[in-house]
Design goal:
Order of helices and strands of chain A: EHEEEHEHEHEEEEEEHEH
Radius of gyration of chain A: 18 Å
Strand order of the largest sheet of chain A: 3-4-2-1-5-6-7-13-8
CATH architecture of chain A: 3-Layer(aba) Sandwich
Largest sheet of chain A: 9 strands, mixed
CATH superfamily of chain A: Survival protein SurE-like phosphatase/nucleotidase
Shape of chain A: globular
Number of domains of chain A: 1
Helix content of chain A: 10-25%
CATH topology of chain A: Stationary-phase Survival Protein Sure Homolog, Chain: A
Number of helices of chain A: 6
Low-confidence stretches of chain A: none
Oligomer: homodimer
Structural class of chain A: alpha/beta
Mean pLDDT of chain A: 97
Chain lengths: ~250, ~250
C-alpha cells in the first residue's frame, strides 16, 4: 500500500520523522510537508499564492521514503499530493502528525494536522491524525508508538466510511489503554492581552486557557487524556447540526 | 443589542459594508475585520504573530458604527473582539460576510467567513455567516438583503443552541424563497496543475471544479442554490461522527 504523510509542524519535525519510520512498516511512504511550522492553520488553503514542491533528501534510517516540501499549508499538501504524485492512484491512507501538541476538544477546528485529514476525507481517502499532548520539539513519542501501529492496523481493517477520519491524541508518558471518545465541549478564554512593542504600539499575541465544560463526562477525548488513555475520536466533515435541522 | 461584524474579504469589501448597513437596524454595530483579503483561511489563527487592531473611519452613511482592522484572520477577529471591545459583555450576535462567493457544501470547512462563526459558537455567541454565490467585488446583494433581515429576525427569535451557528448562502439574482438544508456531499477536483514561472520553476496555483455527489438530493444546500433558493444550514463545531462512534 501507498501512504501519504503530512503534518503542520513542518518537514524535519521529530513527530513527522517518527511517523515516517512507523508507517514504513505498512508500505511505501511519500511525505509532502510544509517547509516550516503551520500550527493553527486549520483547513486554510493558499488562494492566489504560487506554491512550489521541492524534493528533499530523507535521513538514511528512513531510506525508501520519498519527501517533498512546499510553501503551502497542511491542507495544500494533501491537495498537491492528489494532483501530482498521486494523480493516477490515490493514496491508500493519509496520516498526519505526529503533532507536537493536543488536538482534542475544540482544538480540532484550529488544527492544521486535522485540516489535512479533513481534505483526505473529502477526497474519499482513509485518514488518521496523531497528536501527543507535548509541545516540545524534543517530545518523547516512545509510549505512543505501539498504539500508533495497533490503531492504524485496526482502522485499516474496518470498513471505510466516506467523509470521516480519525483524531487520535495521546497523553504524555505511560499510557493505560485506548478509549473511543467524542469531542469534549469547552472553549478557550483569556486569549489576547494588550502588550506594547518596541515602537510603543499596542499588540496582541495569542495565548489562552482551555475551559472544559464537562470535566466529569467519561466519554470525551479530554477525559481520556486526563486519565492516561489514548483518545480516538471519529470526525466527520459534514458540519450540519442535524438535531437543530429537525 | 450589540452586534459584532467580521468577514474574510477584508475591511472595505462591498459585502461587509452592506451587512453593516443592514445590521444597524438591529442595534449597535462594531466591526473588527482583516486589513485585506483572507479567503480560504478557514479557522486559521495567528500563532506567534503580533496582531495590531487599529480604528478606521466608517463611511458617512454608516455613522454610528465603530470599526477596527487587524492583520489577523477572521478567527483572530472574533477572538480579539471578545478579549478587547467585548471584554465585559459578549456581543449578542456575531455576523460574518456578506462573503463574495459560496460557502455551501464542503466549502464550509475552508471558509474564513464561517471560521469566524465557529469561534463565536465556541464562545457561546449566536452567529450567522452570509454568503452570495458571486465572487465579483461589485456583486449585487440587493435580492439577498430582505432575506438577511428576515432570517436574522427569525434566528434571534429561536432558542440559542450552544456550539452551533448558521451558514446562509444565496444564489445570484432573484430569489424564490428559503430552504433549511444540510451540507451537500461532494469534493473538489483538478485543483492544481503544474505551471512554469518567469524563472522556469514549476509552480502550482489553486483552482478546481466542484464535483457534487448527490445532485438529485432536494434537502441539500447545493440543491437549494441551484434552484434559486436561499439555503440555511445549521452547523455544529462538534465534529464527532456519532454514527461511526456507535
Amino acid at each position: 500500500m501507498h501512504i501519504l504523510i503530512t503534518n503542520d509542524d513542518g518537514w524535519g519535525a521529530k513527530g513527522l520523522l517518527t511517523l515516517v519510520r512507523l508507517m514504513q512498516q505498512f508500505g511505501n511512504v511519500t511525505v509532502i510537508a510544509p517547509d516550516g511550522a503551520r500550527s493553527g492553520q486549520s483547513n486554510a488553503i493558499s488562494v492566489g499564492v504560487p506554491l512550489y514542491m521541492h524534493p528533499v533528501p530523507v535521513p538514511q534510517e528512513l531510506a525508501g521514503a520519498e519527501a517533498y516540501v512546499t510553501n503551502g499549508t497542511p491542507s495544500d499538501c494533501v491537495k498537491l499530493a492528489v494532483n501530482t504524485v498521486f494523480r493516477e492512484h490515490l493514496p491508500d491512507l493519509v496520516v498526519s502528525g505526529i503533532n507536537h501538541g493536543s488536538n482534542a476538544a475544540v482544538n480540532v477546528i484550529y488544527s492544521g494536522t486535522m485540516g489535512a485529514c479533513f481534505v483526505a476525507a473529502e477526497q474519499g481517502i482513509p485518514a488518521i491524525g496523531f497528536s501527543l499532548c507535548d509541545h516540545q520539539p524534543n517530545a518523547d513519542f516512545s509510549f505512543f508508538e505501539p498504539y500508533i501501529i495497533s490503531l492504524t492496523e485496526q482502522i485499516l481493517s474496518m470498513p471505510h466510511i466516506d467523509g470521516i477520519c480519525y483524531n487520535i491524541n495521546a497523553p504524555i508518558g505511560e499510557i493505560r489503554g485506548v478509549r473511543w471518545t467524542r469531542q469534549c465541549r469547552g472553549h478557550w478564554t483569556k486569549e489576547f492581552f494588550p502588550q506594547t512593542d518596541d515602537k510603543g504600539e499596542t499588540i496582541y499575541v495569542l495565548t489562552g486557557e482551555f475551559c472544559n465544560h464537562e470535566p466529569e463526562a467519561e466519554d470525551t477525548d479530554e477525559w481520556a487524556l486526563q486519565h492516561g488513555f489514548v483518545s480516538v475520536t471519529p470526525d466527520t466533515i459534514d458540519m450540519t447540526c442535524y438535531a437543530a435541522l429537525r
